[in-house]
Amino acid sequence: MTSFPKTLFLTFGAPDARYRIIRAAADKLPPDRLFWCSLQPAKPNSSFPFSHVAVAPKRLHWRLGNTTLDYLYTNEIQARAMARKMCAATKAFEPEVLWVLAELGTVSVGYHLHNMMGLPIHATVYDAHETARWHLPSLYYPWYIRSVDRFFSELASFDAISEEMAQYLKTRYPNLTNVDEAICQPFVVSGYCASSPSSPWELNDCTKRIAFCGTNRMNSEQWQAFLDALGKLPNKFEIVAFAYKDSFPQAGVFPSNVSATFLPFMDSEAQIIEKFLSLRVHAGYLGLWKDPKRLLFGNTSLSAKLTTYAAAGCPVIVDATESSVAWRLVKKYHAGVLFNGQTDDLKLLFENREEWLRMANGSIEMCRNEFNVDKNVAPLRKMLEKISKIKVSKTNPS
Question: Quick one: which of 20, 29, 134, 159 has the fewest CB in 10 Å?
Fold first, then answer.
């Protein structure tokens, strides 16, 4: 059996950040062969099965927070110095390969680590980096993309969250057509998938419960259109939100037959799934931007909330375009409906027991076939083992 290479893993946040999927992938690897470096510190008294070091950038005055100057200083200007500190901290570990979750400052620090340590780079890509234009200062964005382009020119292999993402990356970076790639979709962290749907039809009340999980990725007009569609139906609806309040759509006028209940964002996915089952949630809501300027996210990325809905055997209401990755999968397994502003498919979901059961079982099948942890981590491990044999010239880190 091939020995797993000593891997230096670089991320922006610490291992105890909101890294549900990537942390679970890391936990599937030999802990003594993994050294996790982050650009943010872990919480006090945190402990991990693998080695960890945080090398956080110095910050400018708090009044300059989230400005172009702040981003330049923390993510670009200090990148080489942070890479030198990581070289020193991991020298005794003697890493053989560099694995980078490509986001924000990791692309610059990772590039310098690659050159200083002579390590081949494997990148994990969840989101197209051009979507960052909606979150970064406009004057900093070109600097960031330049750093991203430089980083991607050095990759030895990569894994992408979807087939569409992999194709997009190869179109944008032709050099990636000559390196190893894999599709590593999100997976159910707990490894749990419901054996059968928990039917809401057995409840005595007539309320239809719709789960809202994770982060809001749509505009207020899109959310209002969904609420308005529910308002046209004869049922009573309760939106059960498993989310931080700042990530739930704040705008929106609720029709008289629609209410919202907030539940704590639970520590584990297993707890959320069990809560779904106990509440007999009727469907899960997945909203993605339909604005033509923001289609890139939905067309290439895959929201992890889809795995939670599928594991609980919930039909999925995909409020996105037909070109979205989420709808491709849901449609493939007949695991839900595409909301297009009309009420016909929603009526089918909420009123037809046989059709609901078909969708619920399709959701479970999607979970088993697409979101299996071992299936998705295996190619990552294989590529890290393969590229560790690549020899890379290195520069003086001083």
Answer: 134
Distance between CA atoms of residues 52 and 34, nearest Å: 9
pLDDT value of position 168: 96
Torsion region of 294: left, alpha or beta (phi above 0 gives left; psi -120 to 50 gives alpha): alpha
- Write out the two tokens for 177: 């057509």
Is residue 1 very low, low, confident or very high in pLDDT (cuts 50, 70, 90)?
very low
Q: Tell me what pLDDT residue 201 has.
A: 65
C-alpha span between 316 and 237 (Å, rounded): 15
Spatial separation of the C-alpha atoms in residues 369 and 371, rounded to whole Å: 6
Structure-token pair, residue 132? 């960052």
Rounded to the nearest 5°, which phi and psi values hold at 31? -65, -30
Q: Which of 156, 169, 183, 144 is nearest to 100 (CA)?
A: 156
Task: Report the alpha-carbon distance of residue 239 to residue 252 in Å, rounded.
Answer: 13
Contact at 8 Å (CB) between 153 and 104?
no
SS3 state of residue 99: strand
Query: What is the reported pLDDT for 247?
Result: 62
| SS3 category, 284 | strand
